[in-house]
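In response to reviewer comment 3 from the previous cycle, which asked for concrete evidence that the modeling workflow produces usable outputs, we include below a single protein chain processed end to end. The sequence was submitted unchanged, and the resulting structure tokens are shown without manual editing.
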Amino acid sequence: MMRWGLLLAALLPGFVAGASISAALGVADGMGLAGSAVVLAYGLAGMLVAVVLSVLAGRWLPRQIVSALLFMLLGITLMLALMLYLRLTHDINRQGLFGSTQQLSSPVTGAADQTMPPPSPASEAVAKSEPVSSLHTDPSCWSQPRNYHQPIAGTEWAERTRLFSGARSQPEQAGVWAPNQAYRFWVSKLPGKDLTEVLIDHEHDGMLILQLVEPAGSPEVRWVNEKLLFVRVAWGRVLFSDMLLDVEQAQLIYHELLQDGSIAFQQYQQACSGPDAADCQCVDGFNKVLEPPVSALNENSMLGLLALPGILTDKDTDQPDGTLPAYLKINGDYQRITDSLDAGILETREYAYQQPGAVVYQRDRDWYAVRTLPAGRELWIQAQAGFNFHPVAELLPQRLNYLNEHWDGWLWSEPGGSQARQRTIPEWQQKPHETPVVIESTRILDGRLWLKVGFYSGPICAGPEPAVENVGWVPAYATSGHLVAWFFSRGC
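The workflow returned the following structure tokens.
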């Protein structure tokens, strides 16, 4: 009696070992019938080997120990067989054997990917200079993590999304109506089963049913317009399906996987900062395949501001502007056209708080080309005692700066370099053409002025000053000749 108790007790660790092997090899989640059969074959082969070894070992081991080992292996085999049975019934359920339903044709294969592993880092020879087919932009060029879509056809997750028509009782809830008040949907979780259904009343016999197998939570469902329904279902923490249903045609017209790109971003950032950086399309987020822009000064290029103390006054005061002589440049000679030009008609900007200066577009020794408003007529002013010219390279650094509508959105690794990355507008930025930056310094390279800028991590005027990140260089002038940056002379 005691011997049989010992043998039966040996089954318990066998069951535990069998369950552990099943979980490790993925029988309970995602291997399918073929994988389950392979696992069972491993178990049977192990049982056979154990029998052979036990016969050989019986010569020098006590018979009770050999019998206990055999019963333990029997427990492992029984547990593997049980897991295979559960997998078989699970796959049959996935095939939709829930009663009388009619499968609808769909131009898009309903599917989802297992975990669709992110593209391998450069150390695995994937982050090359050629584009990554499944991504719009190589992750080594990202400035921050992002979500990205991938094709879903042919993946194992295709089995977990089904669209069909069938008989369902109308839920008691009101449902969510389409904008035309003709169609509506409900989200229902089937009791006792790991299934969620999106039920759609679309003015046909029976319901249009989108069935989701083993979703990680309730799906996000909303109407896009009168007949298109958007569905996003999470399969885990990093993998989702995005679907678009035409409820009138009863078709799934769009279905792709949505992947959280945080892992891909981290892998590429680590790989591209190591010895394999040469294989990356971007290094430190700067793309290697771009040509720097060609920007040259022209008639639109602002060179700086000319301070006219005692003549130009702050517009917020009642003090009138003064007058000064003005000239035209004809064939290289300066001809006076007036001795008393009203400085109030000049185009001006502030170089300091309540300190305006005339905008200068050309300079010839001590002569400065300015413009009148609103006509934009060009006149020349000769420097006098007290006049002070502030060039752009001295005006811009260390101010409350911003990049304006003439900036092309690219940030360069160095002046005149061939590596750049495109900067996206953060959600907190209120005005799309006023990107807050700090201009740390300037540099002239081959006659062109470059600005070293850093982007703030948050709003600059909403509390403590945010951290500066994503530092790089931008050309001071756009290809159109316009200045791409300025500053708020009066603060926030």
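Residues 122-263 form one domain. We consider this sufficient to address the reviewer's concern, and the full set will be provided in the supplementary archive.
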